[in-house]
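Quick one, probably user error.
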């Protein structure tokens, strides 16, 4: 448990250090307007700094709820628990419905912690950690965008910064899980490994959202 407290403290320190380094008075992102209607264009643009619109507080909260208990999120939790059941991980939880229930609850709880930390720090630091399609053409630029969206957030002006909320959320959720309800043989090191695996998975999901279906 002392490792968990240490990691949480470091995560929060990193978050506020990132915020302190952000320059004040950032220029407002340029918005394209139709000459006749003066309507703001909201579609993605090849230039990530153009046409960006910072989500409202309600939109950010709705995204938090969707990423925690939404249908797609619950489906992902069902699949993750099934894969752990098939791999018999952790083996101490056994098989059958009892074992699956533990794995499902573990995956759900870990994600709930992750999303809560990410959302809370997003609100505290005035950052947007949501995914947005690039609107670019070509495979490499779009793959690069999906990778960037895995590790970066946006300020209100649209500027990209290293996503302290996402990194803190991913690793806090994993470390808390391994230090509390996982079997005793697990430690914070396993949490770090699991957190890195989550980031890799998120990159794969971003690729799907960039090239195929965005939700």
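Nope, works fine. Designed sequence:
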């Amino acid at each position: 448990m002392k490792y968990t407290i240490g990691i949480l403290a470091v995560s929060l320190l990193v978050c506020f250090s990132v915020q302190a380094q952000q320059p004040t008075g950032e220029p407002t992102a340029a918005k394209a307007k139709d000459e006749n209607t003066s309507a703001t264009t909201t579609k993605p643009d090849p230039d990530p700094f153009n046409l960006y619109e910072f989500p409202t507080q309600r939109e950010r909260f709705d995204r938090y709820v969707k990423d925690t208990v939404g249908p797609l999120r619950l489906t992902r939790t069902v699949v993750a628990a099934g894969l752990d059941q098939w791999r018999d991980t952790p083996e101490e939880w056994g098989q059958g419905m009892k074992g699956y229930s533990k794995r499902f609850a573990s995956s759900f709880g870990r994600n709930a912690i992750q999303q809560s930390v990410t959302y809370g720090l997003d609100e505290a630091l005035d950052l947007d950690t949501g995914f947005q399609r690039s609107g670019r053409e070509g495979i490499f630029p779009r793959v690069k965008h999906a990778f960037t969206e895995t590790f970066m957030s946006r300020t209100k002006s649209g500027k990209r910064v290293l996503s302290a909320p996402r990194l803190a959320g991913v690793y806090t959720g994993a470390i808390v899980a391994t230090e509390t309800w996982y079997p005793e043989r697990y430690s914070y090191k396993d949490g770090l490994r699991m957190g890195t695996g989550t980031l890799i998975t998120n990159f794969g999901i971003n690729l799907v959202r960039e090239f195929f279906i965005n939700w």
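The helical segments are 2-21, 57-69, 71-87, 96-125, 139-151, 164-179, 188-211.
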